[in-house]
Design goal:
single chain, 130 residues, Inorganic Pyrophosphatase, five-stranded mixed barrel, 2 helices, 8 strands, globular
Length: 130
């Protein structure tokens, strides 16, 4: 998948309500490439939707600090785009929750994104015309 195809896929979810499942709730310890961290936020995916890495499209759930274990509906409010990896991430909140600004969203995902060259982009509130 090209970088533009990845961007198009991610942006197609901006503003939408989607059902996600969690594979790494708050408190989950994870090790990868010699790095280890504990998830301070809930991390999941949209079942059946493949991202740029060929695996299900990942979602950071912002603003919820209790472990989420059951699937739930979230609103996609932006994304983390990685330039050193094909694994972009959606950013989401529970419907009706306060929306973070880009600085606060970046702080919430820094536990993992510090290992990548990435940037946070929040949805501008405009719906795409596909």
């Amino acid at each position: 998948m090209t970088e533009q195809e990845r961007r198009n896929l991610v942006e197609s979810y901006y503003g939408k309500l989607v059902k996600i499942e969690f594979d790494r709730p708050v408190g989950t310890r994870h090790e990868k490439n010699g790095n280890a961290w504990v998830y301070p936020i809930n991390y999941g995916y949209i079942p059946g939707v493949l991202g740029g890495d060929g695996e299900e499209l990942d979602v950071y759930l912002l603003g919820v600090y209790e472990p989420m274990k059951l699937p739930c509906i979230v609103q996609v409010i932006g994304a983390v785009f990685r330039s050193d990896d094909e694994e972009d991430k959606l950013l989401a909140v529970l419907p009706g929750a306060p929306l973070p600004n880009e600085v606060d969203a970046a702080k919430e995902v820094d536990f993992q994104e510090r290992f990548h060259t990435s940037h946070v982009e929040l949805w501008d509130g405009k719906l795409r015309k596909d």
